[in-house]
Amino acid sequence: MTKKELFRTIGVKLLPPLGYVMMKFFWFTSKKSFHIQGDISQDQAVVVCWHGELMISPQVYRKYHPTQPSSGIISRHFDGEIIARILQMFGIEPLRGSSSKGAKQVLLESFRALKRGDDLLVTPDGPRGPRHQISDGAIALALKSKAPIWAVNYKPKSYWQLSSWDKFVIPKPFTHIECHIKVVNVDNLSIDEAKEHLKAKMLEDTIL
Q1: pLDDT for 170-189, tens place per residue?
Q2: Model confidence over 63-84: pLDDT tens digits?
Q3: Domain count, the chain
């Protein structure tokens, strides 16, 4: 086993529980305000958030859909494996694939998840960017499902922002976080129009 393989084997075991604990720590130590635009029900939803907001957004979603069966599209990269295992701790089952690897298979699995009634979580600019751009696949799933789209964002008052491609946002402990869910309607729009409309809504309450 090479050093890289050893590192990844250890990382896959240790990093998910550490990541989960960190996410819960920042969630429970923060003061939060929740802003909802549109009607939130307990019915199936397609939930979209930026890749750089994965620290808090899944927990915002779970506040309003705490027990719904859920699936999330996660890349097949190593960091995707870490994210997938963390999301499983929130009851979100991973569907593994991306625009570059396993795209057809993961789209098929996504449609199956929607058909059986799962909520579907998507990072439309993941797994490698460009940052804050909406992929065709994310919109196609939303349009096909006929389920309402929840655009989930958050803005902490104090935060760290990594130098990664997604400029990952980590709220500082005990800060105040503005949490947003917008129910976005893309009915009767073309894919390009729907992408622009959803992007504009998501950028209203995000850190640029």
Answers
A1: 999 999 999 999 999 998 88
A2: 999 999 999 998 878 888 999 9
A3: 1
Q: Is residue 124 part of a domain?
A: yes
Residue 87 within a domain = yes
Print burial letters for 137-176: b (CB count within 10 Å at least 16), e (below 16): bbbebbbebebbbbbbbbbbeebeeeeeebbbbbbeeeee
72 vs 189: CA distance, rounded Å = 24
Q: What's the Cα-to-Cα distance from 136 to each of 58, 103, 141, 148, 201, rounded to whole Å?
A: 22, 11, 9, 17, 17
The type of residue at 170 is I
Q: Which CATH number is 113's domain given? A: 3.40.1010.10
For residues 171, 164, 86 and 47, what is the CA-based torsion angle, rounded to 10 degrees? 80
